[in-house]
Design brief:
CATH topology: Rossmann fold
CATH architecture: 3-Layer(aba) Sandwich
Radius of gyration: 17 Å
Structural class: alpha/beta
Number of strands: 8
Strand order of the largest sheet: 1-2-3
Mean pLDDT: 78
Shape: globular
Strand content: 15-25%
Largest sheet: 3 strands, antiparallel
Distance between the termini: 25 Å
Length: 195
Amino acid sequence: MLMQRLVRYVHDNRLGTCTTFDNETILLRVHDRGGGKEFCFLDLSGSRFEDTYVKKQLSLAPNPKIWGFMVEYGTHQHVSDRNDYIKLVHSYVSDVLKSNDKVFFICNKMDQVVNRQTYREQIYIFKRVKDEYPGIFTPFENKNPFTRLFKKYNCRFVPFSSGYFHRTETGEQCYVPSEDVYPKMLWEAIYYSIK
C-alpha cells in the first residue's frame, strides 16, 4: 500500500509520471527543472526481502539506491519476529548497502498514533521505535566526531500512513487514503535525496 499511496500522491500533484510493471515494480519519472530524473521503486516485502538471489543482484548493481525499511510504532509483533527483522536489516547493511546509498526508516501506521506530526512527537516516536527494535539503528550511527553533534544517525526517520480500511454499513471493506501529509513527507525525503 505504501508504494500505491506514494504513486497516487505523485500523480495527483503532477510531480512525475508512473509506469507500473507489476504489483512490485514501479518506474517513476520525476519532473524537474533540470530535465528530470528517473528511478525505480522495487517492493521487497515478504520472502523477496529475504531472497539471497535478489540481495546478490542488488549488491552488484552500480547505481546508488535509496532504501526504505518499514517499522511500526507500538507494534504487536512478537519480540522474536522483531529481532529477526533487525538481523535482516543488518544483513542488508553488511551485504548490499554501499556508502553512497541513502536509508530511510519508514514508520508506518502513524495515523493510529498521533493526530499531528510535530517535531517533538517525531522524536518521541523515534525513541519508542528504537526501544521496540533494539539495535536496529546501530549500523547507521554517525561515526564522524564533528557531524555527529548535529546528526546522530546516517539515516532518516519518516512517519507514514497509507490510509486505513473500515467496514461500510453493508459489511464491505472500504479503503480510505491517508492525509496527503504522510506521502508528502516521504516524497520530499526521497526527492531531496536524489537531487
